């Protein structure tokens, strides 16, 4: 393999000691010249393994070839045949575990930077204006979509293109789900999500915010109002807590609350925006996933002098994307692995520190990862005025409680068949509400499948 094919081009990014003081995007992405050079690394394989690694089956070599030819319009059109949120996916998809993992170049060097090229094509389109989609004639049937995360946006967009009259009902005051309330601005600028949502609106989709299905209206009410099918994409946003003494102290947040206050309510601009948040000086984040990394990096940007990331296994077992863990370390986050918090210590109701205990790794548990085992007597204290628990989430419960007809699986998520049909007639579901917390692209894939099933159902084909 020629030497220049082995390594990929790295885009410019903000230096770590600058970016950990601001909320601007970390990576600048490729410029035109870099994108072309990186695209030329692709071997245009006859049997491209990368396509099999993409959860939505994008024709990767085809869009990359258009980039080498400088034809951005065709590149983005090719991507959009399968993926309607490319600017989002180009930034947050775990390509290292998907298409890039199986790229042939990865065998002897670095894979083609497929995600960065997708981002380049999508950003290029945004600059010249997003192309209008072709819509089928109106079918005269109404579909309701509950939630406005990636599963719902894709489902709503596909159904609108098929000619259905689609209304999205979102509980929060802003549409986008985790893309706006969870993933921070420095990884996914809100302006980009806004463009994708505007595109869905441009297809004729109505988005009603501050509208909680299961409280304001029930699923039955929707059917009574003339909706003939419903897609549920309510996500898995119910935070798990640490379950240790001291969790009610002031200064203890779930990652969900912390990130929502910062992202959606712009708490980092307080008092300009009226959403207070405790800006910790010494912050402890508990967890090892993307949500933990996002929380730690956000706390640092809010001005913390010290941010510890406490995780009970080693870095090898961390579920976070490798890139995010690297970025966090570069920005000064202190990784305290093989460590378990056992008690939150307070004074006059306010958090003062976290008592931890060291762990070692034992036999693998059900997840296949080695189980942390406590080292008796190894307790120590980390000083902290803010603790953020990023230890997982469960199904958003409100709609489920209000709709006992929906059958749930053992973990409390909605049970569906492989096409997204639930146990209620005319009700389909997809995304985190059926799988538990997963990824944007998997949620999108579920939304797409469910839209096709809803079309089959409403057309009498199923
Ligand atoms: P969500 O995005 O959760 O959207 C559900 C929406 O439904 C919400 O807006 C909610 O308010 C609304 N809702 C809930 N109940 C009701 C109701 N009763 N009525 C009306 N509306 C309701 N994935 C990646 O691929 N890459 C990443 O880098 C990544 N980072 C992440 C970082 C964070 C902090 C978090 C929390 C998640 C991250 N994920 C990442 C996971 C990814 O964002 C989710 O898998 C994805 O957003 C799930 O999409 P969804 O449409 O199923 O639900
Ligand atoms: Fe290009 Fe890699 Fe896909 Fe082959 S596997 S077509 S080199 S991106």
SSE blueprint and pairings:
Elements: H1 3-6, E1 12-13, H2 16-19, E2 27-29, H3 32-39, H4 49-53, H5 60-68, H6 72-80, H7 86-92, H8 114-128, E3 142-146, H9 150-161, E4 165-169, H10 178-181, H11 190-202, E5 206-208, H12 219-224, E6 227-232, E7 238-239, E8 252-254, H13 255-263, E9 282-286, H14 290-301, E10 306-310, H15 322-330, E11 334-336, E12 339-347, E13 350-364, E14 370-374, E15 380-383, E16 386-389, E17 393-394, H16 398-402, E18 427-429, H17 432-435, H18 440-458
Helix pairs in contact: 3-5, 3-8, 5-6, 5-8, 6-8, 7-8, 9-11, 9-18, 13-14
Bound molecules: flavin-adenine dinucleotide and iron/sulfur cluster.
Residues 92-94, 146-152, 169-172, 177-178, 182-183, 212-214, 233-235, 237, 259, 290-291, 294, 396, 398-399, 431-433, 437-441, 443 line the site of flavin-adenine dinucleotide.
Helical content class:
25-40%
Helix segment tally: 18
Number of DSSP-assigned strands? 18
What is Rg?
Answer: 23 Å
Beta-strand percentage range: 15-25%
Q: Which residues form runs of ≥5 with pLDDT under 50? A: none
Largest sheet: 5 strands, parallel
**Derived structural class:** alpha/beta
């Amino acid at each position: 393999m020629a030497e220049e094919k082995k390594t990929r081009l790295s885009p410019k990014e903000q230096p770590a000691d600058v970016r950990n003081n601001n909320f601007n995007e970390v990576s600048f992405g490729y410029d035109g010249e870099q994108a072309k050079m990186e695209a030329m690394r692709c071997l245009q394989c006859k049997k491209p393994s990368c396509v099999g690694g993409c959860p939505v089956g994008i024709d990767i070599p085809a869009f990359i070839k258009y980039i080498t030819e400088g034809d951005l319009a065709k590149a983005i059109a090719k991507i959009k045949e399968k993926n309607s949120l490319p600017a989002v996916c180009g930034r947050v998809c775990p390509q290292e575990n998907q298409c890039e993992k199986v790229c042939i170049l990865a065998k002897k060097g670095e894979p083609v930077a497929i995600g960065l090229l997708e981002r380049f094509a999508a950003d290029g389109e945004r600059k010249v204006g997003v192309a209008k989609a072709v819509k089928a004639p109106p079918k005269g049937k109404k579909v309701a979509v509950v939630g406005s995360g990636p599963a719902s946006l894709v489902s709503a967009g596909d159904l609108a293109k098929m000619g259905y009259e689609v209304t999205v009902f979102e509980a929060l005051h802003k549409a986008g789900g985790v893309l706006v309330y969870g993933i921070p601005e420095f990884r996914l600028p809100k302006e980009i999500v806004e463009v994708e949502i505007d595109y869905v609106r441009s297809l004729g989709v109505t988005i009603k915010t501050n509208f909680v299905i299961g409280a304001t209206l029930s699923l039955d009410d929707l059917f009574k109002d003339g909706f003939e099918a419903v897609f549920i994409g309510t996500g898995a946003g119910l935070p798990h807590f640490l379950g240790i003494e001291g969790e009610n102290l002031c200064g203890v947040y779930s990652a969900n609350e912390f990130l929502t206050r910062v992202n959606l309510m712009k708490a980092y601009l307080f008092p300009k925006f009226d959403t207070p948040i405790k800006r910790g000086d010494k912050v402890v984040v508990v967890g090892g996933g993307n949500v933990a990394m996002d929380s730690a990096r956000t706390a640092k940007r809010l001005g913390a002098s010290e941010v510890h990331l406490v995780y009970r296994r080693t870095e090898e077992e961390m579920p976070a994307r490798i890139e995010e863990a690297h970025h966090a370390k570069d920005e000064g986050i202190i990784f305290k692995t093989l460590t378990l918090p056992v008690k939150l210590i307070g004074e006059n109701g306010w958090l003062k520190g976290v008592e931890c205990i060291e762990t070692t790794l034992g036999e693998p548990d059900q997840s296949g990862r080695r189980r942390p085992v406590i080292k008796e007597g190894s307790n120590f204290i980390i000083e902290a005025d803010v603790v953020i628990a990023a230890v997982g989430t469960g199904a958003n419960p409100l709609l489920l409680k209000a709709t006992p007809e929906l059958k749930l699986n053992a973990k409390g998520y909605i049970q569906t068949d492989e096409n997204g049909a639930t146990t209620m007639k005319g009700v389909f579901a997809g995304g985190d509400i059926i799988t538990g917390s997963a990824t944007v692209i998997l949620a999108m894939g579920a939304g797409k499948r469910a839209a096709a099933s809803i079309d089959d159902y409403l057309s009498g084909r199923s």
